[in-house]
Amino acid sequence: MNADNHSSTLTIDVLRQFRVIFGSMRQYFRLVEERCGLPASQMWVLQEVCRTEGIGINDIATRMGIHQSTASLLVDKLVSCGMVSKFRQNDDQRRVRLRLELAGRNALANLPGPAEGIVPAALSALPEVVLKTLNINLDALISELPSGEKSFAGTPLADMVGRAKP
Question: If 43 and its partner were Cys, which of 15, 49, 106, 115 is the partner (CB 3.0–4.6 Å)?
Fold first, then answer.
């Protein structure tokens, strides 16, 4: 086998791996929405509020790796449908905090797995050396993309693939 055929075969193998990852994410996010009635990105917010009663929007943004304005929009949607409520504590009236409501608890009870999705859960299960190597190699791949659009880095995966039809 010459170098071009080997490279082409390896490229196709890696492309298939991306298809498995993408398809698995899409399937999982669809299942979350079917079972919970909310997009997985909103379920992740609910999960964070459940984990830390009184959490703030900035903390949610940090935990989810998204921009504060994106987190704020997700929270506002959950507040409008009665899943989460906002409150201020007496000791710090400036900071808005969040509380999980019964409807939010009910939605979380239907969650089929991790709210953040299967990819973050799988990544956190990898040994550190594997994760570091993957990080380096994905940076190299991204640098080869025509746009190398880094703005996608702040968008929850569920919002990118969760509503896609098969």
Answer: 115
